[in-house]
Write a structure and sequence with these properties.
387 residues; alpha/beta; Endonuclease, Chain A; 2 domains; seven-stranded mixed beta sheet; 39% helix; 23% strand
């Protein structure tokens, strides 16, 4: 790993909001526990993965302690992502006055859909968003075994808006009679169309999710694009504006060299052929990559969404879009730092790697991730509710 000192990621205040970047695992855990411990009125958590281990036990127990001192506590976890966490583990929350809900899709309704969002909101004025889940590997120190991820602490009006959305999603998830059209209405109601600090949401749609439509609009005509995407397997049309941006200015992409699923790496490498030689492509090597960051000219996206078909079309996702030149410059400094720990994939490197076997593996992996999974999920859900 390159010996590069961590830069100072001081972020400007924007439109009544203050921000703090959380690039390292231990500081994200400290920020999450502090958010819970300092909550006075309410604490709301939504995570795709919330597993059983010493770190997640600390978070659970902090929630229980908050409830005992009079704070209104709510926790929503995804039934698929958190399937390995037992009911006994969540019993101290479920058996108390806390609101606890598993989003549990069934084969007859919402099957194969994922609530992939990650958020924590305290007192409707402070929030954490990003790509990290609640499990010890997501809070691992840099350069160790675990996930390299990114979080953002936000204080300001966006936290109240996120809390209002959370309440509606919890009500929808806990109602066995809820329909897909109700979910889409929630997403569109809370998805912000303007402002320098905007909350964007995604969910199951026939076309691109609302957040992804906004991203596509920003990509078109851009001159400087930096993307860190743990899972990178979009359809080819979304890659064209990135390549065009590289011709006008510069475009850089960081994907994973390590993951817990080799299919995702092979699928990403299958997409490189649509970007090279114009786009600079890097693979992050010290840890498994889980970051989701998009810097497009003066606009930054941070949140839960990958640059793959699930996040673009199917998953429930939340992204914060910040428009500010100084903010974007600071995040480009973060990208520079991650590139220092990454290996560049040149066109010659890529050509040498493309044996008949790697080509087949890449095409098969992309088919499984972006074609088969999407079409099966779409038919099971959109065919059921008539939307």
């Amino acid at each position: 790993m390159a010996d590069i000192e961590r830069p100072d990621y001081t972020l400007p205040d924007i439109d009544g909001h203050s921000f703090a970047l959380l690039p390292d695992g231990p500081e994200r855990l400290d920020a999450l526990l502090a958010l819970i411990d300092n909550a006075r009125h309410s604490i709301k958590l939504l995570f795709y993965i919330f597993l059983e281990d010493p770190v997640s036990t600390r978070v659970r127990d902090a929630l229980v302690a908050a409830q005992r001192r009079g704070v209104r506590v709510a926790l929503l976890v995804d039934g698929f992502g958190s399937a390995k966490a037992s009911d006994a583990f969540f019993a101290p929350l479920a058996d108390s006055d806390c609101i606890f809900c598993r989003y549990e899709p069934k084969r007859s309704r919402r099957y194969l859909l994922r609530n992939h969002q990650k958020m924590a909101i305290a007192d409707r004025r402070k929030a954490l968003v990003g790509g990290f889940n609640v499990e010890q590997d997501y809070f691992a120190p840099a350069g160790t075994e675990g996930w390299r991820d990114l979080g953002l602490a936000v204080e300001g009006p966006a936290a109240a808006r996120l809390a209002a959305y959370f309440d509606e999603i919890v009500a929808w998830s806990g109602d066995s009679r809820s329909e897909m059209e109700d979910l889409r209405a929630i997403l569109l109601r809370h998805h912000q169309q303007d402002g320098d600090v905007r909350l964007l949401f995604g969910g199951p749609t026939r076309e691109l999710s609302p957040w992804a439509q906004t991203l596509r609009n920003d990509l078109n005509g851009a001159t400087h694009i930096d993307i860190i995407a743990a899972y990178f397997a979009p359809y080819a049309p979304l890659l064209r504006p990135i390549r065009k941006a590289a011709r006008r200015g510069r475009a850089r992409l960081i994907t994973a060299a390590k993951s817990d699923n080799t299919v995702t790496i092979a699928a990403a490498r299958n997409r490189y052929r649509y970007l090279l030689p114009e786009v600079e492509i890097y693979e992050y090597r010290p840890m498994m990559l889980h970051t989701k960051l998009y810097v497009i000219d003066d606009v930054v996206y941070i949140g839960s969404a990958n640059f793959d078909v699930r996040s673009l079309y199917l998953n429930l996702e939340v992204m914060l879009r910040i428009r500010d030149a100084a903010f974007a410059d600071s995040l480009r400094g973060f990208v520079d730092h991650e590139i220092g720990d990454s290996l560049r994939i040149t066109p010659d490197d890529y050509e040498r790697s493309q044996t008949p076997w790697t080509r087949f593996k890449g095409r098969l992996s992309y088919f499984l991730m972006s074609v088969l999974d999407y079409n099966v999920t779409r038919r099971l859900n959109f065919g059921l509710d008539g939307q």
